[in-house]
Task: structure prediction
Amino acid sequence: MKYLISGGGTGGHLFPAMAIAEQLRRRDPDADILFVGSNGKIEMTKVPAAGYRIVGLPIDRGFRRGEILSNVGLLWKVPVSLWQAWRAVREFCPDIAIGVGGYASLAALKVAQWMGVPTLLQEQNSFAGVTNKMLAGKALKVCVAYEGMARFFPSDRIVLTGNPVRQTLLECDATPDEARRQLGLQPGVPTILVVGGSLGARTVNNAMIKGLEYLAGESDVQVLWQTGKKYLRDEAIAAMERVKPANVVRADFIDRMDLAYRAANVVVSRAGASSISELQLLGKAAILVPATFVAEDHQRHNAMALVNKDAAVFVHDDDSKHTGGEPTASEVLPHEMVALVHDTERVATLERNIREMALPDAAAVIADEIDRLTHSNGK
Result:
């Protein structure tokens, strides 16, 4: 069988795609899998490192309203991407094309549909992305992670599957204290994990920098802080050198997220779909700080789906337009996370409620749908 998987641009799109590929290859070690992504994006390094082939397209973003000059480059990127996608589909001859969102996915899946290749979409968010909405009309199935998605997609093609997550996160057998030791933390101490994605999160990092002296005084808790490599990283390093908090460990990037999750009593995170699915499957008490700059404000929608079921705590981003005068992360986040980690009853409630929202075995369920579509197509 030949599977074309397209999407990426962010880990939120890429990690589910790789989890699906992993499941397909586990079922059929001889499966031929080709990824199509965007040049310069995360998938162009992560996919080959995982042992898969990938074709890169020049399209790496959409049109930006009010930025006429910055859109000029798209005038050639769009037709060139469609041409390169057509060539990839023609040469590879996939039995099915799977789209997970992102600009490359729009080009690759649209071409596949034009050429009569069966297509399946996987939508990670509670508020559907533009790409998947544009492709849904000719898609045979749309695998979703949230209920109520019929407002975006044809109801007879929707399958509630959940979001696939990295299998390594679910297979960690270390105890919390063993995980803490391996990460340079103290065993037996309530632990808070602060992450903002691979590049970091400006608001989350700013809140940590401002609250570092307060956290240093809370010696009965400890914090593992992933700053990322972009937003306020140097300022974070300078603050750590100035304050020298014994109970805060900072890293650009945490390679062993399985250990980090296992070590943590409370997780502070953005509200990307992949992160939320991981938190659900692992049953972690979380404080969510949704990014405001993402398309369709989908992170806020993702977070509210949990908050409305008392499955997470919501803290506004500094740039939020929905605060209504409520405090933002830079004002309250360090105090909120320390208060939560000390409130063991509240932590237990959040853990129970978020775990009840989990949809396990998402990659396997999606692979089942892929099998049904290919077999029904005479493959």
In short: The two ends are 8 Å apart (CA to CA). The chain has a mean pLDDT of 89.
